[in-house]
Amino acid sequence: MRINALVLIAATLLLSACGFALRGSTGIASTLQPIYVGGSRDSQELQQALRRQLQINQVGTTRKRGQAQLIAEVQLLRYDKRSIALDREARDAEYALFERARLSLFSPQGQLLKGPVVLEQRRLVVNDANNPVGEETESSIVRAEMREQLSIRLAQQLEYWSRQLPADPANAIAP
Q1: Cα distance between residue 5 and residue 167, in whole Å
Q2: What does the alpha-carbon distance between residue 146 and residue 18 come to, in Å, rounded to a whole number?
Q3: Quick check: helix, strand or coil at residue 53?
Q4: What are the helix and strand counts (H, E) for the chain?
Q5: Which residue intervals of 18-131 are DSSP H helices?
Q6: What is the DSSP letter of 148?
Q7: Which of 156, 144, 10, 161 is CA-nearest to residue 79?
Q8: Which of 4, 44, 102, 107 could form a disulfide with 111 if both were Cys (CB 3.0 to 4.6 A apart)?
Q9: What are 106-157's pLDDT values in tens digits?
Q10: How far apart are alpha carbons 19 and 35 in whole angstroms?
Q11: How far is 35 from 112, CA to CA, in rounded Å?
Q12: What does pTM read for this prediction?
């Protein structure tokens, strides 16, 4: 019996040490659904990622603003690349990637309910200066992962806000 308990504790410690964490689900009351996700043209990829996150978590979305109970406006503010360290030949040895987005929540009538809030993702990337094609490929893969992580954070922010709203968002008062 003690051996089983020790194995379970060891497995738990090993799993937590590797950085594993449950994503959790994003629950939004059915009276606040469907949600319309909109924003500017240059934010379409992030909007799609947020819609996908909401659908994964069984939150209804709509592509028609007029059918929505809530309107989430997503704006990709900035994506940047900064040099962190240089090698002997003054080439990037490490660089940082940044993605920043603003989220606001509106009632169906266009009244601001929550936000805006700005969320940011950052990643450090080690660069192989002898492989410029690999750098571009890795950079685009890392950016896609960052946008996916940013969409998870945006969905979690929507869930948090939805818990603070009344059952009928049309009667909500702006913060």
Answers
A1: 45
A2: 19
A3: helix
A4: 3, 5
A5: 44-56
A6: H
A7: 144
A8: 107
A9: 999 999 999 899 998 888 776 766 666 566 677 778 888 888 999 999 999 9
A10: 32
A11: 14
A12: 0.71
What angle (nearest 5°) sits at the alpha carbon of residue 58, between those of residues 113 and 41?
Answer: 55
For residue 166, cis peptide bond before it (omega within 30 degrees of 0): no
Contact criterion met (CB below 8 Å) for 99 and 119: no
Query: Cα–Cα distances in Å, from 92 out to 61, 87, 124, 146?
Result: 42, 6, 12, 20
Beta strands in 25-69 (DSSP E): 35-39, 61-62
Residue reference for tokens 């194995």: 7
Q: Is 39 left (phi over 0), alpha (psi -120 to 50) or beta?
A: left
123: which DSSP letter?
E
